Amino acid sequence: MAGGFVSQTPGVRNYNYKLTPKVFVTCFIGAFGGLIFGYDLGISGGVTSMEPFLEEFFPYVYKKMKSAHENEYCRFDSQLLTLFTSSLYVAALISSLFASTITRVFGRKWSMFLGGFTFFIGSAFNGFAQNIAMLLIGRILLGFGVGFANQSVPVYLSEMAPPNLRGAFNNGFQVAIIFGIVVATIINYFTAQMKGNIGWRISLGLACVPAVMIMIGALILPDTPNSLIERGYTEEAKKMLQSIRGTDEVDEEFQDLIDASEESKQVKHPWRNILLPRYRPQLIMTCFIPFFQQLTGINVITFYAPVLFQTLGFGSKASLLSAMVTGIIELLCTFVSVFTVDRFGRRILFLQGGIQMLISQIAIGIMIGVKFGVAGTGNIGKTDANLIVALICIYVAGFAWSWGPLGWLVPSEISPLEIRSAAQAINVAVNMFFTFLVAQLFLTMLCHMKFGLFFFFAFFVVIMTIFIYMMLPETKNVPIEEMNRVWKAHWFWGRFIPDEAVNMGAAEMQQKSV
Ligand code: BGC
């Protein structure tokens, strides 16, 4: 156990805490929630490029893929095939809205449990699928699971973590997502070599493993002090806070949680309240951050890397291998964020990552344009193909320490308790909606916009980088219940925050009442 820490951010209160094994283990298990999302993200791209799978369920795409005359950009274009990938995200969108009520009323852990449970059933439907209907029902159930987990896990981690390390702990979610993706691509690499239908069945069916992990994890996890207070268990909340902070001297933080809870009790309708002007910064951020995260174009790589690499002329085995390499790079680079986010802050990572993604996307667009032209015919040499893979890795690295983890961290840490569950549900719903759109439209967009697609995403990266520069205040080290001070101090958002909304701690409250 490390020694005691006191957070040192000017203008915000400092709490006492130690980095306890308990908070570490709890957040580690909590982060498992990201595994189911990641496994799914990683598995679908590989499965949809397996020939036996395509032959069984999508014979039309299979025939087209085999046709030698097909335009390279359009080889895999099929709405039904993309529906297989994207149906999950519509389900996740819907379930995240229900999840917000369960997370608030029953606690964060039960949303996680439900997430694991529905994901488990979905994996069985998919592993044993006999027809398209079973496949789609399975996908929808998996989607429900993802919605529940993504709504509750980031909030859970942000609430458990000590303020000074909230970024690092919360990034555990993204690490788990990417770990899930990497494991899935490795599994795909091996199952793709199996004859007949067994390969894709194993790939899809093994989704039950992360599902069981999150179910067991959720059963043994304690709930957060914030959630215990919110549900009236004040004594238990204080004990929990003492045990995760490793000290009995938690009065100041505890009082802030109580104050935040009192304030939130005045709010009967989180969904209506989030529309009030005083929550404008949170509303805008929880809509725009996930929107922009998806408009980085990352999921073009996540879902379709194998397909994209095949389009570039790689064999199917080489394509899966390249997808594995980009996944491993993404995993390693996410740790850069884990170790720097609380030291250097969110803004610098967002800005640096954005510029890196921009440069690599433009370079990829130019290279593909030069090689395939508008007609989409031609061949790409080995050196050029490798160069494109290297550029994709640079792009993925940029995302991995910026928009990937921060797209989940920032929305989960900026909202006061009274709107937190609703805000996180909006975050997940917007994220899922645009994940759906990108998944559904990518192959068609590639077919029509050709290499211009990379410029399309680059354009959005420019906009989002300017947006962060102008609109996002730094939130590193700020206790989660103290966030209003940060908004109040911002050149633009300050006007929306009433003076009394800047949360007062016990000492100030007493002073004021004397
Ligand atoms: C995003 C996903 C993405 C994943 C891996 C997550 O933060 O929300 O859409 O697939 O990172 O890159």
UniProtKB/TrEMBL annotation:
Any idea where the Major facilitator superfamily (MFS) profile domain is?
26-476
Q: What is this protein called?
A: Major facilitator superfamily (MFS) profile domain-containing protein
Q: Which InterPro entries does the record match to this protein?
A: MFS_dom, MFS_STP/MST-like_plant, MFS_sugar_transport-like, MFS_trans_sf, STP/PLT_plant, Sugar/inositol_transpt, Sugar_transporter_CS
Topology of this chain in the membrane: Multi-pass membrane protein
Gene Ontology cellular-component terms listed: membrane
Q: What is its main location?
A: membrane
Compartment(s) where it occurs, according to its Swiss-Prot or TrEMBL record: Membrane
Which UniProt key words apply to this protein? Membrane, Sugar transport, Symport, Transmembrane, Transmembrane helix, Transport
In terms of Gene3D superfamilies, this protein maps to: MFS general substrate transporter like domains
From the broadest rank down, the organism's phylogenetic lineage runs: Eukaryota, Viridiplantae, Streptophyta, Embryophyta, Tracheophyta
Keyword Cell cycle belongs to the record: no
Which residues span the membrane? 23-42, 80-98, 136-153, 173-190, 202-221, 283-308, 320-341, 353-374, 386-404, 424-446, 453-472
